[in-house]
């Protein structure tokens, strides 16, 4: 394709995807502006696949990506700046904000201005800052904030020593979770084990982690699976490593025909029972949910159920540990059981390979002249891949990686459900 033709094609894609996004927003109300404070109805929509598809293309065309300075976000998140600014819809001068959080005002102004330049907060007058749509994710009540804190604390710690781990001859070629970069840094403080072991020893950290998983519903558009996959055809679902129910709580509310088993470690289930009693007591009263302890490295899940769902589980572990999880899962399957693995699937930059995946498996590839994997439009998947490396020595996987791992565990790929950002891989017993 000639250069002029590429530019013309880009202009067409920008116009088309922008108009698609506008039309989708207008179905639910006005198109939102960055400086408005009220959430848009589409922000909490269960199925965001169409919107994410449009925005993914638009972001890749414009080569824009929101990457905030970890240190600055850490300051405003830890000091609950967004919550403070809720009381000042017209903005608060940095000198007054400084008094409330005890941070030197000129340094604070530089932090706020950097974030506002990135689109998080608005500078409504000189040194006067207010919330906007993006800064509202940092409200204490927003589950996404807990995910943000995970990144600016634990992930940033791992990133700071990442190069050291690559060059340390004792661990450079290892994928052992106990020496992942974050744990490499943390071990210097006398902590041993995996990141999950570290969380278990810190009050509130595990609870915040499970809450952050609910934040992924909005970030990844994960709940689209509830409308895209035909759950109405099934009667039992096992949520493997389900935590407090980031997936199964919405499932129980939208598909009341299904009986749910939540598998996790005992400490996670204690938190889960309390949240279900508060948010979905009818499911408990009707015996539509049960909580069963499971160590998925050593135990087999409850047997013979219709669906076994794993969201953001396999990506937490290197290949050896992931193979153990899937092998134990395979032992639980009945002849008609299905396994749904819901994760990012890293797409190929090679257009030749992308075309093969699109034609055989239904994985959507980007139109030319975009990069076949949607480039920046899919950047979160590649950033998440690094997050998994820093925290767990694990990874997000390509489709071929997923196939290799599942095939070795005795699973057969039946279908790829492409949800625009993440994918759900449906397997049967081979």
TrEMBL record:
<dbReference type="InterPro" id="IPR036388">
    <property type="entry name" value="WH-like_DNA-bd_sf"/>
</dbReference>
<dbReference type="InterPro" id="IPR036390">
    <property type="entry name" value="WH_DNA-bd_sf"/>
</dbReference>
<protein>
    <recommendedName>
        <fullName>O-methyltransferase C-terminal domain-containing protein</fullName>
    </recommendedName>
</protein>
<feature type="domain" description="O-methyltransferase C-terminal">
    <location>
        <begin position="195"/>
        <end position="353"/>
    </location>
</feature>
<keyword id="KW-0949">S-adenosyl-L-methionine</keyword>
<dbReference type="GO" id="GO:0032259">
    <property type="term" value="P:methylation"/>
</dbReference>
<dbReference type="InterPro" id="IPR016461">
    <property type="entry name" value="COMT-like"/>
</dbReference>
<dbReference type="GO" id="GO:0008171">
    <property type="term" value="F:O-methyltransferase activity"/>
</dbReference>
<keyword id="KW-0808">Transferase</keyword>
<dbReference type="InterPro" id="IPR029063">
    <property type="entry name" value="SAM-dependent_MTases_sf"/>
</dbReference>
<keyword id="KW-0489">Methyltransferase</keyword>
<dbReference type="Pfam" id="PF00891">
    <property type="entry name" value="Methyltransf_2"/>
</dbReference>
<dbReference type="InterPro" id="IPR001077">
    <property type="entry name" value="COMT_C"/>
</dbReference>
């Amino acid at each position: 394709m000639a250069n002029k033709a590429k530019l013309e094609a880009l202009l067409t894609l920008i116009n088309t995807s922008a108009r698609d996004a506008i039309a989708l927003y207008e179905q639910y109300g006005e198109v939102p502006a960055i400086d408005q404070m009220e959430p848009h109805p589409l922000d909490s929509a269960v199925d965001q696949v169409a919107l994410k598809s449009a925005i993914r293309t638009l972001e890749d065309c414009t080569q824009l990506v929101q990457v905030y300075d970890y240190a600055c976000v850490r300051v405003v998140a830890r000091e609950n700046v967004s919550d403070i600014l809720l009381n000042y819809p017209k903005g608060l001068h940095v000198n007054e904000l400084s008094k409330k959080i005890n941070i030197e005002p000129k340094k604070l102004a530089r932090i706020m201005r950097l974030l506002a330049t990135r689109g998080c907060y608005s500078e409504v007058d000189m040194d006067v800052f207010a919330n906007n749509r993006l800064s509202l994710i940092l409200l204490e009540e927003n589950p996404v904030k807990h995910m943000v804190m995970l990144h600016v604390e634990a992930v940033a710690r791992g990133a700071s020593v990442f190069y050291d781990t690559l060059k340390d001859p004792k661990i450079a070629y290892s994928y052992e979770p106990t020496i992942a970069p974050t744990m490499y840094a943390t071990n210097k403080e006398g902590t041993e084990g995996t990141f999950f072991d570290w969380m278990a020893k810190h009050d509130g950290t595990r609870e915040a982690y499970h809450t952050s998983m609910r934040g992924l519903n909005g970030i990844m558009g994960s709940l689209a699976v509830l409308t895209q996959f035909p759950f109405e055809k099934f009667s039992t679902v096992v949520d493997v490593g389900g935590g407090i129910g980031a997936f199964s709580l919405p499932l129980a509310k939208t598909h009341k025909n299904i009986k749910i088993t939540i598998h996790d470690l005992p400490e996670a289930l204690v938190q889960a029972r309390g949240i279900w009693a508060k948010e979905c007591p009818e499911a408990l009263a009707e015996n539509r949910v049960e909580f069963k302890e499971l160590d998925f490295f050593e135990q087999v899940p409850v047997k013979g159920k219709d669906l076994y769902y794993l969201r953001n589980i396999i990506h937490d572990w290197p290949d050896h540990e992931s193979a153990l999880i899937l092998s134990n899962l395979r032992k639980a399957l009945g002849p008609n059981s299905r396994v749904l693995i819901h994760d990012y699937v890293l797409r190929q930059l090679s257009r030749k390979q992308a075309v093969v995946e699109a034609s055989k498996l239904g994985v959507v590839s980007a139109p030319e002249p975009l990069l076949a994997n949607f480039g920046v439009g899919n950047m979160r998947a590649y950033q998440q891949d690094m997050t998994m490396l820093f925290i767990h020595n694990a990874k997000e996987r390509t489709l071929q990686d997923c196939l290799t791992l599942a095939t070795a565990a005795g699973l057969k790929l039946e279908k790829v459900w492409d949800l625009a950002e993440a994918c759900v891989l449906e397997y049967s017993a081979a």
